[in-house]
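Title: Prediction job returns without error message
Component: structure pipeline
Severity: low
Priority: P3
Assignee: unassigned

Description:
Job completed but the reporter wants confirmation the result is attached to the right record. Sequence as submitted:
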Amino acid sequence: MTSYFKGSSPQPGEGGFMDRRMTQHRRGKMTRMSKLISAVAIASAAALTLSSGSALWAQVTDPGVRGGPAGAGTFQATLTQFEQESECPGQQTFVQTVGVPVGEVTNNNCAGSPYPVVIQSGGLGPAFNSNSCSSCHAQPAIGGSSPPSNPLFGVYNLMGAKNGMPFFESKTGPALVARFPFQLNDLSLPDGFVHQLFTIAGRSDATACPTLGQPNFAKASTNKDLALRQPLPVFGDGYIEIIQNVDIINNLNANLTQKQALGIGGVAQITDDGSVSRFGWKAQWRAILPAVGAEENIELGLTNEMFPTETNQNIKACATINAVPEDASNYQYWSTNQGAWNFDANSGRNAIFIRFLEQPTPACAIGQDCSSCPGTGGCANGYTQFNTVGCNLCHTVSFTTPAGSIPSMGHVTTNLLSDLVLHHMGPCLADNVTQGSAQGDMFRTPPLWNVGQRYFFMHDGRTTNIVTAIEDHSSIVTTCTGNSQYQASEANAVVSAFNALSLTNQQNLVNFLRSL
């Protein structure tokens, strides 16, 4: 695989995609062999951990969401004048509340903008999860993760909608999206798709849709056919988008002896053009623009030029209220003096907004102490322990971007703390959803930048305690009724090493994470 990325596109007869798959298969086979070799050592470490280390980690405390400035949500400082002029229109589109009928609103909140910002304001439904991007991407700033109070409770029955709130949503929990790994009425058949929480039925701006049922989430839960995911922050995604494929692959192939000794493997999610896909819980998206288009279509039910048909067509009257695509280029603004961004569709503006967001700033420079280190301090030692136990083997501290056509994004060290590839996380975390190369127990290593200001952890937001989140990476320490078809978590030995640390070192590591 590494040699493949050194050249250009594969030539006829070179195999290309299948060659890469075979390379992945061989790496996976080697990794499985190394795991068998290290199984005894891991089991022994786990036994020691359970007899002594678990008593230590139970005493470690999460200092909680760190205070102070958000450290995120600002734009890159060296954007050109014209790039800067697109910042506010993109942001105002990201926060726009969407109704059902397609229309436009004029937003004059962009101070200093020479032209008014005209935003498309309709297209919600027929089925949806929320009515704006920023409702779920809000903590600690616009573009972030789920806020501490679930925003969906202010959305689901707006304007007379007939929705009930799904049982798994909590007012003090994260906004959750539901997938069914298998088809609701035939568990032998795969599904894997998002099933939107709400419908527009009964809304006063959707009189053409008097009835449209919500999915049967209770039945899915009874069938153990319900997978939940919380929103990921988008800070710094513009940098992640242009990290070189070869850099990700080379990092995956680095430190192999140490990784194999700890049972760590990893597989890159490869797209049809040979690129490394890197966005989403399962690295299912390669770039920002298609991810935004998909999120509009799935989360808001807003059709666009990349996804031009409604996801829910169960009742024709509900699916044909608006002409499609609803979010489209505004040709009436072409060649006018009203601002080029008014021509661009919402999806394009949202992508620009995300692309220009700066990477988060930690409370303390990584590897250093500072007065803002949370809890009892020790952030520098915590970073040392982070590397000592092997967290950094998956949560790679940084990548450097290549030259960028947007100059501010080129040759930047991005401290994302992620390798951007997929790992087996074991039966306790498995969601049974397969997406591309990502099997039912595999997840992309989520970037840790700004993790110190998140309220909810893990893909399904199962805990607010970052110490518990560490332990949940393990399928040995954590007891669960998971699916036995999946192999042990690749993080088992790392979590065991964490639990073997002294209480001080454990606490310092946790404080370091909360400083990010």
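Comment from assignee: result matches the submitted record. The mean pLDDT is 89.
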